[in-house]
From TrEMBL, chain A:
The lineage of its organism: Bacteria, Bacillati, Cyanobacteriota, Cyanophyceae, Pleurocapsales. It comes from the Bacteria. This is UPF0145 protein H1P_2370009. Belongs to the UPF0145 family.
UniProtKB/TrEMBL annotation, chain B:
Coiled coil: none annotated. Pfam families: YbjQ_1 (PF01906). Gene3D superfamilies: Hypothetical protein apc22750. Chain B. This is YbjQ family protein.
């Protein structure tokens, strides 16, 4: 399933710890580097759109879109991690996600958090 | 007209069969993952001691069937609860939480804390179009172990 790939995106990248908490459990924050963020805008391609249109007849999950957005979110997280690496952090805390539909057929995926150094 | 009725009927029957199947699946998986609590606090309150933490996210895009779209457009005339869409969002949210939980369990989490839920409308109904009703639901949180 696609969940496996998104899991790798969210946890294992270059040793940076990412959490939605305000700190890292068991560790102490020694330095703050401020906000880091990553975003990506994805458009769905026509094939997937047509498939989704057909699937829309009977409802339920639109797997094509789910995968597309998961991939995009992975990329947003990666960009955020890149930024965190750049400022020299080893953890990103208080991470939040947001999705918005910016234009017809395109969605923005956005991830942001606070880069910190932990012991 | 005939076409329209066929589409409605297909949407209704296939849609409700799929929905029942999905609910059955959700309930089964919820029972299976019930031993890992998910908590929506964790930022300001102390959480049980943990050595490791990692981010987990589960997402799903769900859409309405043809019948539901038609029913909601009728409902639009008089207002009130759009019951047919409520079940879609309920399914989506539970599915997203389950996906997050299953990833966390595979990693060995004992708890998922500070869970946040986010909903975004990505269909073109949101921007005034008449076609697709699709909603993305994300659940994300920190797994601790």
């Amino acid at each position: 399933m696609t969940s496996r790939s998104s899991r790798q995106a969210s946890s294992g990248n270059s040793g940076i710890i990412i959490t939605t908490l305000e700190g890292v459990p068991g560790k102490e924050i020694i330095e703050h580097y401020g906000l880091v963020q990553g975003s990506t805008i994805r458009a769905k391609h026509v094939g997937k759109d047509i498939m989704a249109g057909l699937k829309n007849l009977v409802g339920g999950e639109l797997k094509g879109y789910t995968e597309l957005l998961q991939e995009a979110r992975k990329e947003a997280v990666e960009r955020m991690i890149e930024q965190a690496n750049f400022v020299g952090a080893n953890a990103v805390v208080n991470v939040r996600f947001a999705t918005s539909s910016v234009a017809q057929g395109a969605a923005e995926l956005f991830a942001y958090g606070t880069a910190v150094k932990v012991q | 007209m005939i076409e329209f009725i066929i589409l409605l009927a297909v949407g209704y029957f296939v849609g409700s069969v799929l929905e029942k199947k999905h609910y059955k699946d959700i309930k089964k998986r919820e029972r299976k993952t019930i031993h890992v609590p998910i908590i929506s606090f964790g930022a300001k309150q102390a959480i049980p001691e943990a050595n490791e933490a990692a981010l987990f996210a589960g997402s799903v895009v769900v859409s309405a069937d043809y019948f539901k779209m038609f029913a909601s457009s009728l409902r639009n005339l008089v207002g009130g609860n759009v019951v047919v869409y409520e079940s879609i969002l309920d399914r989506g949210r539970r599915e997203a939480i389950l996906r997050m939980k299953e990833q966390a369990i595979a990693w060995g989490a004992t708890q998922v804390v500070n869970v946040r839920l986010e909903t975004a409308s990505i269909g073109n109904q949101a921007s005034g179009g008449k076609g697709l009703f699709a909603v993305e639901v994300i659940a994300y949180g920190t797994g601790i172990r």
